[in-house]
Design a protein that fits this description.
437 residues; alpha+beta; Multidrug efflux transporter AcrB transmembrane fold; Alpha-Beta Plaits; Gyrase A, domain 2; four-stranded antiparallel beta sheet
Length: 437
Amino acid sequence: MTRIFGVIILITGILLSGFVYVSEKNGGPFPLAFGLDLAGGTHLIYNADTADLDERERKESLITLREVIERRTNLFGVAEPLVQIEESSFVAETREDRLIVELPGVTNLSEAVRIIGETPLLEFRIEDENAAFDALEEDRYISVGLTGRFIQSAELTFGGGGGHSGGISNDPVVLVNFNTEGSELFEQLTRDNTGRQLAIVLDGVIVSAPVIREVISGGTASISGGFTPEEARDLVRDLNFGALPIPIELISTQAIGPSLGKAILQDGALAGAFGLMIIIIFMIVWYRLPGVVASFSLVFYIALMILVMKLLPITLTAAGIAGLILSLGMAVDANVLIFERLKEELEAGKGVQDAVREGFARAWLPIRDGNISSLIAAVILFWFGTSIIEGFALVFALGVLLSMFSAITITRVFLLALAPKGVGKVSRALFGSGIKL
């Protein structure tokens, strides 16, 4: 039965390796997703203005901001965009929350900035009855916390929009439909401020300031501001794919050319291939037949790792390649522990099959403890690290799990399938280790 399992694993490994190679070489299904540093693209950093929000609103707004930008970048066909929020801690009563956007394949900085910058910031402000008579128009209104993050959808109509906006017939009017929470806030806002002006502010500019004549229920507001039909259609499109809940300011841009990313990928792949070749040579020379088995397990592990990254998918970065190579070392380390225990059992006079079983049993505890400690470190790095560190930690953790599977399961099945029950000179030579001079 063990030999049957061994044949099945052997065939599976060959087919799996062939599929991974062919799919990458010929552009098959589930291609590997490469990060910005490998595929080239644009890296943008924005400062998110959360100074006027309490802690709960701040966190909700940052989450909504990330979701909005993700929808916007997907709308423009950007492949595998990475949008992250870096939240700052309170230091000297100053906090700085940042939005990090990585757009693989987009090397035109102005185009990348346009994709993000076209998203409007919509908010509603109520008239300040205590404002100075000569105050600027934008200073005569108070923010009420009703922003674009409460918007469910928007649509274009022509006419007065139900009389709420004071629009002229046949003028384009944008109807904004709020979600449940936004509907309740808007209804309460109109109930408490009947007779006062309600300013509709888009990207800091007041586009409409109708007087609230009555309580408006149903969760729909209308925006009219002398739009052309094209401008109104663009506004509806932008609102449907996300109005920014908070203002953002571009503070850093970086373009990475595809040639640089290609060089990094080639160098990383070359380093991994050389490392794997040296490991295989060492394992075969030093550990003989078990080394051959371990070499096959390593190849199987690499193919399985690439397949998992394809299917999940996991975006591979230069740091991820480093994590992959490091996890390869963990797989080799597990095999070394097993083979050294196997050698000790053979020296104690046990049969080869018994020595294999006992060797795995004795090696399991240190392998388990070593991998658990590595996984703990990977989780900590992923939880507290930046985007680059997260990529390394994720690939490393996945590699540790799969390498443990390949060492404990695949290597064990093959050794038991090949190991004879008795002990002879040939079997001792094949399953021994070291070089005798």
